[in-house]
Amino acid sequence: MKITIKEANKYVDQEVTIGCWLANKRSSGKIAFLQLRDGSGFIQGVVVKEDVGEDIFAHAKSASQESSMYVTGIIQKDERSPFGFELLVKNIEVIHESVDYPITPKAHGPEFLMDNRHLWLRSKRQHAIMKIRNEIIRATYEFFNNEGFVKVDPPILTGSAPEGTSELFATKYFEEDAYLSQSGQLYLEAAAMALGKVFSFGPTFRAEKSKTRRHLIEFWMIEPEMAFYEFKDNLEVQEQYVSYVVQSALKNCTLELNTLGRDTSKLEQIQAPFPRITYDDAVTFLNEKGFADIKWGDDLGAPHETAIAESYDKPVFITHYPTSIKPFYMQPDPDRDDVVLCADLIAPEGYGEIVGGSERIHDFGLLEKRIEEYGLSKEAYKWYLELRQYGSVPHSGFGLGLERTVAWISGVEHVRETIPFPRLLNRLYP
After folding, report:
1. CATH fold of 5-96, please?
2. CB-based burial label for 167 (10 Å; 0-12, 13-18, 19+)
3. DSSP secondary structure string, 287-304?
4. Sign of the Cα pseudo-torsion (190, 194, 196, 202, in order)
5. CA 231, CA 174: separation in Å to the nearest integer?
6. pLDDT of the residue at 167
7. Which of 135, 161, 279, 360 has CB atoms 3.0–4.6 Å from 165's, for a disulfide?
């Protein structure tokens, strides 16, 4: 019977066949230990010479790293194994012998590993990170479907820039100028006026010349947008959603989190509600902590976000940023026209901003004024303004960066490990 490693718990004491690759091996006299992987998981195959005979034992000892094979054996419980099972091997059929596999068990530098990303993905560490990423995606769809949201797919090619053109990739769309999307938000606002509560999940692009461990050129965003939701409602959805995906990862990725050495006690504390501080209070706090460089009206950088997050065990909302440093579409605070109804959600443990959101301007006149003040084309945003002409309502939304969230939940240092093929300032290969 052919099975996957993930299904091993269903076939204890039964003979099965697994199509797999040899990740690593070691031998001790008349016993060989094969570390096998098949994409669904990892299992140890134990080959005992006196049980299998000379030929099969010779195959086990000579097989090279990443050779593909069919391995037949009996599934046995093994409490010493992180997976809980091992395979007592009876037969090995080599499909393809791998020669001179470049990523050996020794340590390699990050540039070498990135050059070989197509192979590095096979490692146990990368496998664990990708499984956690997949669980966050699965839980995202589950959460929004359960909450009555409709999935909408905004275009990747756009004719306008929601947050200015300085960080956009420009291209030609036949005879017109076009850009790779940096957010689907504006289109989702239109969809929310038709469907009430919507969300998108797709790639976004930022032509930002940054080399920090938090930045990618191409990354994936989850962007919900909600009609009749005001600022407070928006924050509640964010904290419920983030709590949901963290708890889902804890429940369904125990083995992967352990493989990465993640301190899961810190994740267990991630339950709504989350603490909230205003931008005003954040600046005061930072000044008291010795950050003399930050003054009111400045945007907060990574060191500032980290200093604030260190005071909390949960993600923390920083709310009510100055109007001057936020995009044109954000709703002003009704009591203060110098700040807007927005929030950034800062993850603990130094992982920085993972969510940005706001209530959107729903007044036609104010939005028109903002577009003019930001030097944007009224013609390009004509359709966006029309959303405020025909049944405008208060509405809000946010965007969660998938890779930063994966990095935080996984506990990995750099976002380049959290996406299958990262696009960085100096990397477009492989």
Report:
1. OB fold (Dihydrolipoamide Acetyltransferase, E2P) (2.40.50)
2. middle
3. HHTT-TT--TTPPP-HHH
4. negative
5. 40
6. 83
7. 161
For CATH 3.30.930.10, the residue range(s) in the chain are 118-417
48-90 pLDDT, tens digit per residue, is 999 999 999 999 999 999 999 999 999 999 999 999 999 999 9
Q: Residue 64 corresponds to which tokens in the numbers above?
A: 């090279």
What is the C-alpha to C-alpha distance for residues 408 and 256, in angstroms, rounded to an integer?
14
* Cα end-to-end distance, the chain, whole Å: 37
pLDDT digits (tens, 9 = 90+) for 168-224: 999 999 999 899 999 999 999 999 999 999 999 999 999 989 889 999 999 999 999
Cα–Cα dist 99/354, whole Å = 42
Mean pLDDT (the chain) is: 96
Question: By CB neighbour count within 10 A (0-12 exposed, 13-18 middle, 19+ buried), where does 319 fall?
Answer: buried
Distances (CA, A) of 350 to 190, 261, 286, 317: 35, 17, 15, 14
Question: Could you tell me where in the chain the CATH 2.40.50.140 domains are found?
Answer: 5-96
- Return d(Cα 62, Cα 42) in angstroms, integer: 20
How many residues does the structure list for the chain? 430
**pLDDT for 28:** 86
| H or E element at residue 89 | strand 85-96
Which residue shows structure tokens 């209530």? Answer: 359
pLDDT band at 108 (very low <50, low <70, confident <90, very high): very high
Contacts of residue 400, Cβ cutoff 8 Å, sequence gap at least 6: 221, 222, 223, 238, 241, 242, 354, 355
Q: For residues 376 and 165, what is the distance between their CA atoms, to the nearest angstrom?
A: 10
- Please say whether the structural domain 118-417 has been given the CATH code 3.30.930.10: yes
Q: Report yes or no: 317 and 345 within 8 Å, Cβ to Cβ.
A: yes
What H or E segment, with its residue span, contains residue 193? helix 185-195
Does residue 241 contact residue 223 with C-beta atoms inside 8 Å? no
Find out whether the peptide bond into 155 is cis, omega within 30 degrees of 0.
no
Show the CA angle centred on residue 177, arms to residues 171 and 179, nearest 5°.
Answer: 50
